[in-house]
Structures are given as structure tokens and as C-alpha cells.
Fold this sequence. Notes:
The chain is of the alpha/beta class. It is built from twelve helices and twelve strands. The strands form two sheets. A six-stranded parallel β-sheet has the order 2-1-3-4-5-11, covered by helices on one side. It has a six-stranded mixed β-sheet with strand order 7-6-8-9-10-12, with helices on both faces. Strand 8 (252-255), helix 11 and strand 9 form a beta-alpha-beta unit. Helix 1 packs across helix 2, helix 5 packs across helix 12 (297-314) and helix 7 packs parallel to helix 9 (210-220).
Amino acid sequence: MSKIRPSCKTIALAAGVSRMTVSMALRDHPRVAPETRRKIKKIARAQGYTPDPNLTQLMRYLRKRNISKEEPVIAILNARMRPLNELGKDSVLIREGARERAEELGFKTEDFWLHEPGMRLQRVVQILETRGIRGLMVLPVEHLRNVFSLPQENFVGVSTCSVAAKLGFNQVHPHFYQSMHIGISTLLEKGFRRIGLCFTKSDDERANHLYLSYLLYHHENIPACDRVPPLSKDVIKRSDLKRWMHKNRPDVVLSTNMDHFEWLQALGFHIPDDISFAALAPATEEVSDIALVRVGYRKIGATAIDLLKTKLANEPMGPTDNPAVTLIRGEWVDGASVSPVPAKPAAAVR
Length: 350
């Protein structure tokens, strides 16, 4: 005679409760008294009960869909002081990638600006909770002061920048250290020795200071005469670039700002004859003659939605004990702005 497989029904019969009570007790639902939960779990262990993972996932999905009969919604949060139409191109591309991927997966997306006039964070939270929106994707923030706090027991989320780590959400962002590595190593392979790096301090803060970290590592492994001090300020002006070029004479400029390409030309440099130029992780999809380390910002948004979908289907609400970080690698793209051979010493600034 075959042995009856343990199930919620067999546990319910042994405990003298309903199958719904068993189901809620095994999920530690607060509506079931602690003593009853302990009794039911003891019977489940005695019977050798193990949940069917496929059924568990299905029931979790159905319970969440019962919150709202409409298409499930993912909230895209903008925590910067500026509205969406004034954000940088990186945020725009991340949002576009997220919206495209969400639509493919059957989700709707809605934008929420945390600093909208008349809006407060508590009000945004109230709207999300009332509408049953549990999945959040946070666009890149500019500074640590932009990071906000949420009652995380009610949400699951993914942030798309490293600065927002203290939110407790999983993160997806560029692999800053690897992007620096591929940029500098490629330029070294092309024969350049004096590589000058330009970035604002907010650029480096958003990169968790990994741009500067890799540059310091690089400088430790080259002769002192080849070490070019970086141009790093809160705001870099054309006059700053002019003084820095005149003083340091790099062979090639690696910059997070593609405008520096035009600035160098306006200062009288012929690219790549006098000086070579490459852009570091610019937020652009345009094809140009400028060599660059390309980061897939749309891919960051799409990957964030993939992670969020998995979390919504398989994980309970609330903060993640040990948030995971997914890094999107950069790739070198050749361009006419970098000479295949070392450039001549930089011409005098005119």
C-alpha cells in the first residue's frame, strides 16, 4: 500500500484546522497565533512535509495579482531635485531601457518624482501602498544627500546606481573599475604613456571613487615621469582644462565629458595629431568619430526590471539582508579621435 504524501490537507487533519490556516502558518502569517503556528510546523516536520516550489511560486503570484486586477505596475522613482526632463542622458536611457523591458514582461511603469512641488515622500509611499504597487526601480541619484528612506517591509526594489546602496535594495550599475581598466589598458596597448584623466568630483562619487582608485593603482605601476595628475573639480571649466593641459602635457585625454573634445579643439589642439581623446562611459548612443568606453545604460534599466520581476515572484516583501550588486561591463569602441600611434607632444596652447 503506497504511503500518503504529506500535504496541507494531511497536516490540517492532524492539527484539526483548515488547510488555509496551515498554509498561512507555514508562511508565518501574523493572523495565525504563534502557538498554532508552532503546532502546525511541528506536525509538518513529523510528516516530512516539503512544499512544491512550483506551486509555491504560482500561489505567491496569484496572491499578488489579487491585490489589483489591473496590469501589475512598477514605480520608477526619481529622487533628484530636478524633474525627469532635466535629468542627465544616463538616467533617460536607463528609464527607457526599463520601460521597454517592463512592457515585454507584461508590466506597466509609472514615474514618481519625490521632489515634485507639493509632494512629500510620505505622500508617495501612501499612493504606492494604496494602489498596491510593490515593485520600485530607483533612477541614479546625484549625491548621497539625494538618498531617501522607505518603509521597506512593504516594497521590493532595485536601484540603478551605487550611491543609493544604503536603501538596502539590490543594485545594477556600470562596472566603473572595469571601465577604467579597459580604457587605460587599451590606451597603453596603443602606445600612450602619459594618460590624463578628467572627471568631476560628483562623477567620482557616483562611481564610489573607483575612477580615482584605479588611477592610483595605475600610477603605482608606471614611472613617475608618466604620471599625469587628474583634472578633478566640482565643476570643470574650459579655463581649467586649458591650465591643466598647459601644465601637464598628456599624450591622451580620457574624460567623462564628451564636451571636452570640442573644448580641446577650440583651444587650438588638432585631434588626434596634437593630442588624442577618448570618452569614459558617456551616456550616448550616437555614432561618432570619438573613441570611447561604452556602457549599456539601456541594459542597466532592462536588467533592473529582470531582477525586480524575479524578486516580486519569488521573494517576500521587505529589505534584503545582503543586497546583491550586478555590474554592467564597459567595452572599448575605436574612433578617429585616438591615433593608432602615440601622439606627438602636445602643442602649446594658443
